[in-house]
Design goal:
Elements lengths: L8 E6 L19 E6 L11 H20 L4 E4 L7 H7 L4 E2 L1 H12 L3 E5 L5 H10 L6 E6 L11 H18 L3 E4 L8 H7 L5 E2 L1 H15 L48
Parallel strand pairs: 1-2, 1-3, 3-4, 5-6, 5-7, 7-8
Helix pairs in contact: 1-2, 3-7
Length: 268
């Protein structure tokens, strides 16, 4: 892993969805000192909005993380505020794997005593609540407010999305939030405009938070614990069909599905 002596850090963003040309993904933020590449999945859904979506995306995320490390990436960021498969990916690679939700919440707590998360639809609130509880931050989370938009509807009308986000943000401040974490990485382009509507309230773009966090970990020469995230024992893995692969869309078959070096669980 590069240390602080390395001038450039390679970060791979894994978009845990299948992109078919109709799904719009905002450009990655420019992070000084980082070269960023992106990988989407060849098998999965067009958006992640449920526990089912999380679980279905997991094999592809894990495979993409393995491939990113093998290709020389210094860190991986999973581009979804539900942090799908982040813990599992940490078990099979030794480079840092960062989730936007975890990074965004902890950054919020560096600038405020309590935060709220502005998510997409009301149906997502239980999933976000579980995530907050998993990180034992429920006593620091003032509320979870929904903008009333599906993920794939966020970019349909930017002004309407901002209006909905602003209403949810004001409600969150009334709940006691002193900082706000955007609950979907597709809200990122509205970060500055939303912050202008709430002077004095920090608004956290979780993807930017995750990328900066990944950069810092690499610069410090620190990654996740091999004790906290031990590599799984090698074992045979079977998929339902030889032509099914779950990894990055640009790859020629998945290492897991095609019998590659990790198909027997051989991880570092």
């Amino acid at each position: 892993m590069p240390s602080s002596r390395h001038p450039v850090v390679r970060i791979t963003i894994i978009d845990p969805v299948v992109l078919d040309g109709q799904v719009l993904i905002d450009p990655a933020p420019e992070i000084p000192g980082a070269v960023i590449e992106r990988r989407s999945l060849a098998f999965g859904t067009a958006s992640v909005e449920s526990r089912w979506d999380d679980a279905f995306a997991a094999p592809g995320i894990i495979d993409a993380a393995i491939r990113a490390e093998a290709a020389g990436a210094d860190a991986v960021v999973v581009n979804c505020m539900e942090d799908p498969a982040v813990d599992a990916a940490r078990e099979v690679v030794r480079i840092p794997v960062v989730g936007p939700a975890e990074a965004g919440m902890h950054l919020a707590l560096c600038v405020a005593d309590r935060f709220s998360i502005l998510t997409t639809e009301a149906a997502d609130i239980p999933i976000v609540r579980e995530m907050v509880e998993r990180h034992r931050l429920e006593h620091r989370c003032a509320s979870i407010r929904a903008a009333g938009l599906p993920v794939l509807g966020i970019g349909a009308d930017e002004n309407d999305t901002l209006r909905r986000l602003t209403a949810a943000a004001h409600a969150a401040v009334e709940d006691g939030a002193a900082a706000l974490v955007l609950g979907c990485t597709l809200f990122a382009s509205l970060t500055d405009r939303l912050a202008a509507e709430l002077p004095g309230i920090p608004v956290i773009d979780p993807l930017s938070a995750a990328l900066h966090h990944a950069l810092t970990l690499v610069r410090l020469g620190v990654s996740h614990s091999a004790v906290g995230y031990p590599a799984p024992d090698a074992k045979p893995i079977s998929w339902p069909a030889d032509d099914v692969h779950f990894g990055p869309a640009a790859a020629e078959g998945s290492a897991l599905a095609a019998g590659g070096p990790h198909s027997e669980g051989s991880v570092r």
